């Protein structure tokens, strides 16, 4: 009996590749919480919760269709935001007003607690994402496990930092929408955690195997652009004085130029 040739799978579109990269990254589990933080504010609590829940559901469906395994973070997202949505529907006006002020701290503390619990039960939340990108032969290796414990602790630290900044803004400054504590310093923690997640596996693996280390520039490459964007945003929103905003733009621009000069040198040192 002649075997029938297997039909070649059609190449994935750019959108499908982007969706695959999204659902295979720990960022997909964090994204609904970022949406909640961005949209939450006076008069928008219910909308923010519904948007976060919708993204949680979309992420869960995309992951199943893409053949991904069930992940603790995805399930936690669905349960948490479904509960928040029910509260938003049933709660009194005074409760909603209270939640509009403290929702950021509640979500950050919940995320911090979740990540720490996954570490304590020896299932750091990044592990399930990493396994989908790693040969099963390495799943029980000490270096693979250490990498995921370290990355998960960094994310826990980022959420703890966000909780602290939110508390300072809400309780100490009495301004839940403070430019620095409500936005700049909190988002910086997330961006650092994302950069660390991208950098640490290659760094730790190279160190364990005695190979040339990867450049640590990736850990700070985002900083100059972030400073520049902060300056622009500060001027547009009146979050900073004119002098501070201009200074941040100048420092960010100079930093971007300096970084471009450093990158070729770092690339050359790696290849040597």
Task: Describe it.
There is one protein chain. By secondary structure, this protein is an all-alpha fold. The protein folds into two domains: 14-202, no CATH class; 215-266. The protein has eleven helices and no strands. The chain is globular and about 55 Å long. The model is unreliable at 267-272 (pLDDT under 50).
Give the number of helices: 11
Please state roughly what percent of the residues sit in beta strands, choosing from under 5%, 5-15%, 15-25%, 25-35%, 35-45% or over 45%: under 5%
Q: Biggest sheet, open or closed, and with what strands and sense?
A: none
Relative helix content: over 70%
Total strand segments: 0
Euclidean distance between termini CA atoms: 55 Å
Give the class from helix and strand content and strand pairing: mainly alpha
Task: Note poorly predicted spans.
Answer: 267-272
Oligomeric form = single chain
- Radius of gyration equals 21 Å
Count of discrete structural domains: 2
Secondary-structure element sequence?
HHHHHHHHHHH
Anisotropy-based shape: globular
Mean pLDDT across all amino acids:
85
Quick synopsis:
With 272 residues, the chain is mainly α. It has helices at 14-23, 27-39, 45-65, 72-90, 93-120, 126-131, 142-172, 179-208, 217-220, 222-237, 242-271. The protein folds into two domains: 14-202, no CATH class; 215-266.
Task: Quickly list its features.
272 residues; mainly alpha; 2 domains; disordered C terminus
